[in-house]
Amino acid sequence: MIRAMIVDDDALVRLGLADLLDGDAGIEVVAQASDGLHAVEQATAHRVDVALVDVRMPRMDGIAATARLRALPHPPKVITLTTFDLDDYVYNALAAGADGFLLKDTEPAEILRAVHLVAGGSAMLHPAAARRVIDRFHATGRPQATAARARVGRLTPREHDVLALLAEGGTNADIAARLGMRESTVKAHVSRVLAALEVTNRVQAALLARDAGLTT
């Protein structure tokens, strides 16, 4: 069972999302919060697997809340769910550690799919957000590209293969099938890749791989 938390300052949005998530037999809403500070308190009091977090909220916005949530001893995965797909929101949410970025007009089935994917260790970006990220990180002739290539150079050949498929959006199951490995082995490789690259999640690893020119 995936334990979810909804973080939004709009009570009607929280109610609608709670109804949606509770309608999925594999998801249980264990906490709700009306702002970022409240979200950190709730995540400290309850074990949360996935938090759906709005960006624009009082007291502490969703970007700051994401960073605080990801710094907890038992950090939840975070899906940024917002009305706006502004560049700064996308980049800052992912930099803060979000594993997903969706707009509130996303189809309900896709929101449920995102919760399951992120809980399972994968990532999910709204197509518009993904396009913005790819456009920004596409060029490779800048200083951060050199740094990214240096980090990727730390990987073993097998870890390099895993990163390349991860950057294409592959799940652990997809990567296992492509490389002829057990899914548990892929999971171990992914953990080592994240540590070697000094990133916190698959989205950041994929961005670094693109920055290094590993994918187009």
Question: Could you write a compact summary of the structure shown?
Answer:
By secondary structure, the chain is an alpha/beta fold. The protein has helices spanning 11-22, 36-45, 62-70, 87-96, 108-119, 127-137, 143-152, 157-167, 172-179, 183-197, 202-211; strands spanning 2-7, 27-33, 50-53, 77-82, 100-103, 124-125.
List the helices and strands and how they pair.
Layout lengths: L1 E6 L3 H12 L4 E7 L2 H10 L4 E4 L8 H9 L6 E6 L4 H10 L3 E4 L4 H12 L4 E2 L1 H11 L5 H10 L4 H11 L4 H8 L3 H15 L4 H10 L5
Parallel strand pairs: 1-2, 1-3, 3-4, 4-5, 5-6
Helix pairs in contact: 2-3, 3-4, 8-9, 8-10, 8-11, 9-10
Question: Which features does this protein show?
Answer:
216 residues; 6-stranded parallel β-sheet; globular; alpha/beta; 11 helices
Report the order of strands and helices: EHEHEHEHEHEHHHHHH
N/C terminus separation: 36 Å
**Which residues form runs of ≥5 with pLDDT under 50?**
none
What's the helical proportion of residues?
40-55%
Radius of gyration: 17 Å
Spatial strand sequence of the major β-sheet: 2-1-3-4-5-6
Number of strands: 6
Largest sheet, strands/sense/barrel: 6 strands, parallel
Strand fraction band? 5-15%
Structural class assignment: alpha/beta
Shape: globular
> Number of helical segments?
11
Query: Mean pLDDT across all residues, rounded?
Result: 85
